[in-house]
Specification:
Layout: H1 2-25, H2 35-48, E1 55-59, E2 66-79, E3 82-89, H3 111-117, E4 133-136, E5 139-144, E6 150-152, E7 156-157, E8 164-167, E9 172-176, E10 180-183, E11 187-191, H4 203-215, E12 223-228, E13 232-234, E14 248-253, E15 256-260, H5 264-275, H6 303-316, E16 324-348, E17 369-381, E18 384-393
Parallel strand pairs: 5-12, 6-13, 8-15
Antiparallel strand pairs: 1-16, 2-3, 2-16, 4-9, 5-8, 6-7, 9-13, 10-12, 10-16, 11-16, 14-15, 16-17, 17-18
Protein name: Tunicamycin induced 1
InterPro entries: TUNICAMYCIN_INDUCED_1 (IPR053283)
Signal peptide: 1-21
Amino acid sequence: MALRSVLIIFTVLLAIQSSSTALISSPDLNPPYPKAISDLKEAIVKGLGLQADDFKISGFDLRDALVGQSAAYEFDIEVDNKVLPFKLLEDVNRWEYVDLPIFRVEDPMRLNEENALVKMRKPKGGLPVLAPFQLAGPMELWIQDAKDMRISLPHDVDAGVLKKVILADGAVVTVKGARSVSLRHPLDLPLPLNRTDNGFASGLLTLADRLRHASRIQGAPLLSLRIVGPTSLTSPSSSSQSSNNRLKLKRLAPGLVELSSPSKTKAIETLNAIDLQEEATTLLTPNRFMTMWPIVSVNGSNSNLLGFEKLLSSVLGPKAKEEGSFRLLKADVSAETFMKIGFEVEKKLKEGDGFSWEGFPEWRTKPETVRMHFEVLAKVDGEKIVPERVMQVNPVVVEDTVAANVPLGNRTMSTTPIIHPPPNPFAL
């Protein structure tokens, strides 16, 4: 009987020891970083110029990662033999918690734990696409990665696998499902960049109108764009559905078609009558400068367009008002997936760091480390996450609670003088 009791106690102790060992050897509650997040962390450390011996970085909790889609604009402008690159990002309208494949840990032994801790929704949708936009001729479109692209004029037309589409003067198409649009050849743009005398058009719209006029010259090279992944090219919808809104398709070669408008002749005659007196601004009407060629779906009052015009004017400086030209080497608009996630950097304080203790209470013990909170905006590029912008953010401030005797110099209430305020004659 005694031997049996000893065996039971020994078994219980062994189970307790095994459980304790399992708790000690179990990993922390934070799931392991996927390779994409680890690479992002290393890129941020290098970008901030931190030394490995005086800082500690933490955070990057995938449960707090937000994902959204937006458009990125990249331009290369050559002015006086100097190339100036620009990169602009539209604000993301909607951030969501989305489980991207690159967020998943590669170790199969940790998948169950990761799925239990990182609670995100399943991935939805495919690659990000640009919002539908309209293009007007004369121009040429080079199509890439669009084997199942649909052409509707306004009814569907079987044109086979298209590689190139020529838009004749007067033809307008709506492009849907495109992932990116880029300029195939550099453009020489004339200066000065100024508004018309009657104030109807901005500098960029006036410049676009000059380019459209130059493209109508016999033998002039067509504006050439590369479009990746469009799902359809359709004739703009109209409530009247008149024959003037429909486009004609002409097959020029395998994979090459031309789209033209039946009212092309009338449109050219009307526009030429104005172009012959282009310098006479009294003939310019507001309707002529409401949209920007060749992207006629962009309104002249678009905030992004006005902002880019101000940026371009500031870069050109006095040259923007002088006769001359500048070259647009690159113009690329693409739909991108962005992610933002927070992290914390704990840095040891050393002499000579220049840290200011102004406003720090004298009664508090000065810390030996300082914590800084950041948020990184990164672009999801395939299997990589490329940081675009790192911003320092202010955490939620926690108010200090101090005992009453601390601000009074550690005095007791018996030594505190009693002050009687003057009586109020209106008090009862």
